Amino acid sequence: MTPKRLLQTAVLPALAELGLQGIKDSPEARRLLVAIAMQESGLRHRRQVSADGQESGPAVSWWQFERAGGCRGVLTHRVISPLMLRICDLYDIDASELGLWEAMRYQDVVAAAAARLLIYTLPSPLPASPEDGWNQYIQAWRPGKPRPETWGANWAIAESVVQGA
To answer: Does 43 have pLDDT greater than 90?
Structure first.
């Protein structure tokens, strides 16, 4: 997957669908979604790579959601739960942690929508700088092994892709 293809085939359709539900599309949202997907999966693994090098870890999708983490969060959060349930209904996905988790591995639009909804739960406005983007990423994803050294490059690529869209 390339960042440009991710933007075109997953992020833009997800943001269009969420726009119908009142969450506005913006270059800032696009950039953050692409940057986080690159940070989480490198756009190379739809399932988390475990210590033995196999794609068998607990997280799935380009955004690396775990069942009891991000999946549970978007399905139960008081503000975004109705929106996530609507996305599940539109894509004929069982609106359970397991159902969403299984679907997100290959339903990129659903995964992008879930990622945007997770970001939407944060109190801060969408970030305009790499530093603010990093802070929102850390706050929403709470990565076990954050890699700040890769964030700047991922942000720059996401910025370039979004500006070229």
So the answer is: yes
